[in-house]
Amino acid sequence: MNRDIRYDQTIMRYENGQLFETTDNYVTEFPLTITVNGDEFATVICSPNHLDELVFGFLASEGVILKRDELKHCNIDDSRGFAHVTLTTQLNQRIQLSTKRLVASCCGKSREFYFQNDAAIAKTSMSTISVTPHQILKMMARLQNESRTFHVTGGLHNAAISDGGNFYIHRQDIGRHNALDKLFGYCIQYHIPVRDKILIFSGRISSEILIKAAKIGVGMIVSKSAPTTLAIQLAHDLNITAVGFVREEHFNIYSHPERIVNPSSS
Description:
6-stranded mixed β-sheet, 5-stranded mixed β-sheet, flat, cytoplasm, sulfur carrier activity, molybdenum cofactor biosynthesis, Sulfur carrier protein FdhD
């Protein structure tokens, strides 16, 4: 059974002027407390799947690790909601003091904290990837088809990473940042280079999501939803192609359109 879903929960429904009892399925929220070298580091509210990938990706995006080899041991105790991580080195004191916090499923942070700490880890993309409009539409269609739990519950964010062709991995979570961290963690675990990869995302491209993409190191983010003004500014500055409103047979390109190649003009 899918641990992301609580099945057949009794609810009351109003429809056609009547209240009646029925059942519904909804998503599971799971608190995962991450300890680093024996000290509590953060509690992430997440969906209870691919937790090892979430831990690896979260720690990398927070600047705790740069590569898989820096993580000596990771023990996931999902019965108690703990991930015990041991690093090969001591945790940087600045990170330890500034990062220990509760990370809610919406992954919100204060703007001051966000720019002083996270933006320093973001990378300017050096990606040389190029894709056709047809590839973008095809990737989004596949993301939608893979999002089975969302179709059942309507309560998850979906994300995937692709090279525009064969490589494709899909992850989902109640937290939009968590879904991206799981993809990042997967790539770290299996030593998959990310520079020429594309993030496909179901949610809004906010400044925080754009920064997360920059931390991962991809050159393009494709979403079925809208971007924000600050996200577009950051995408221009960080050399990331931001594509939004990918629906049916159309989309908008907000930054660095040179990576989208129109076959009819070649």
